[in-house]
Amino acid sequence: MNTEIIASELNFKAVRSSGAGGQNVNKVSSKMVLIFDVATSFGLNEEEKVLLQTKLKTKISQDNLLILTCDEDRSQLKNKRIIIKRFFEILEKALAKPKERKATKISKGANEKRIQEKKKAGEIKANRKKLDF
């Protein structure tokens, strides 16, 4: 993943935001929409593209566009910074390879303890039976 190339491939669109801001909301387009085309990106290799398309399939449209929006702040510039940061966090999280699990054996002590508890439970159940004289 080449972050400089990916950063140059990002497309932004300013849209009118909803919510607090009074008349400013009606005049200023402070909401930012980030659009990233996963399929045509030169910053990702083919393996990374496939990985992104599988892990982020709920966030990627049918046209292979990853679309993120941010309207947390009244400032367009701050929203742009927030959305870029969030975008790279999502990318890194999706491309991170999980740690391989190593199979381990149950210790002898733990196994003996389990068997003793089972025997104790069996004895308790055996003592519930009616005695036949």
Automatic annotation (TrEMBL):
Composition bias, Basic and acidic residues: 110-133
Superkingdom assignment: Bacteria
UniProt domain Prokaryotic-type class I peptide chain release factors: residue ranges: 3-128
Chain intervals for the UniProt region annotation (Disordered): 102-133
GO biological process: rescue of stalled ribosome
Signal peptide: none
Matching Pfam families: RF-1
Gene3D superfamilies: 3.30.160.20
One MF annotation (Gene Ontology) recorded for this entry: ribosome binding
Listed name of the protein: Ribosome-associated protein
